[in-house]
Write a structure and sequence with these properties.
253 residues, alpha/beta, TIM Barrel, 8-stranded parallel barrel, 8 strands
Length: 253
């Protein structure tokens, strides 16, 4: 079975102490992650070491950075390199979140460079894609997402593409409380998988985990995750509440 993943995206929230407390609260809850399931915590960069210290010895749990830079090292004040992540033992990075695309002008081409350097350094990218509201209203969301995939991912070979995690996050559903219906999520996830299949073959496409993101909560996770092409979620707001995120982890297939 494909990996089923509940990924927490804390974004720019919580103090170090609050973050530590949240992880402690989650670790105190009974949870059963099966061999094909994972929980990943994308924490702010200053908390990566804390999260690694608390979680690196836990099975089926990973820590992710929320961003990294496309260059190996050098005069790039304020940026985070993949070598730095390697030195912390961080194995995942969220790339191309819509907030980074919108506020920091990250283009599909720039994200392709970031993906390359991550894969060269054995870091698994969680690659985000998804359309804004006006594109959904115009009914052109498939073409929009297909272009994101083609321009950022399709230079990769099949051996690398299966290392990725993809997160489909319709921008109109992020932080708005407006979740995509499970049918809308399934439809787009199946479309993304069909694009992968067209490029790399069905066997390869079947190995890639595709997460849904956008107002995932404890009360909608079971239905969303039960869709055949939805392999878990990338969770913002609800990942900041221990009970909510624990329930979302338990909703994984
Ligand atoms: P949300 O955020 O769950 O708060 O909608 C999801 C995300 O942006 O990853």
């Amino acid at each position: 079975m494909r990996k089923q993943i509940a990924a927490a995206n804390w974004k720019m929230n919580l103090s170090l102490q609050q973050g530590e407390q949240l992880i402690n609260d989650l670790l105190a809850k009974p949870h059963e992650l099966k061999a094909h399931q994972m929980a990943i915590f994308a924490v702010p960069a200053p908390y990566l070491m804390m999260a690694q210290n608390k979680l690196s010895n836990k099975q089926h749990v990973g820590v992710a950075a929320q961003n990294c830079y496309s260059k190996k090292s050098g005069a790039y004040t304020g940026e985070i390199s993949v070598e730095m992540l390697n030195s912390l033992g961080v194995q995942y990075v969220v790339l191309g979140h819509s907030e980074r695309r919108e506020y920091f002008n990250e283009s599909n081409q720039f994200l392709a460079e970031k993906l390359d350097i991550c894969l060269q350094h054995q870091i698994t990218p969680i690659f985000c894609c998804g359309e804004p509201l006006q594109i959904r209203e115009a009914g052109t969301q498939n073409a929009f997402v297909a272009a994101q995939l083609a321009e950022s991912l399709f230079h990769l070979n099949a051996a690398d593409i299966v290392k990725l995690v993809i997160a489909y996050e319709p921008i109109w559903a992020i932080g708005t409380g407006k979740t995509a219906s499970s049918e809308q999520a399934q439809e787009m996830h199946a479309f993304i998988r069909s694009q992968l299949a067209h490029q790399y073959g069905q066997d390869t496409a079947n190995q890639v985990s595709i997460l849904y993101g956008g107002s995932v909560k404890a009360n909608n996770a079971v239905e969303l995750f039960s869709q055949p092409d939805v392999d878990g979620g990338l969770v913002g707001g609800a990942s900041l509440i221990a009970d909510e995120f624990a329930a979302i982890i338990n909703a994984l297939k």
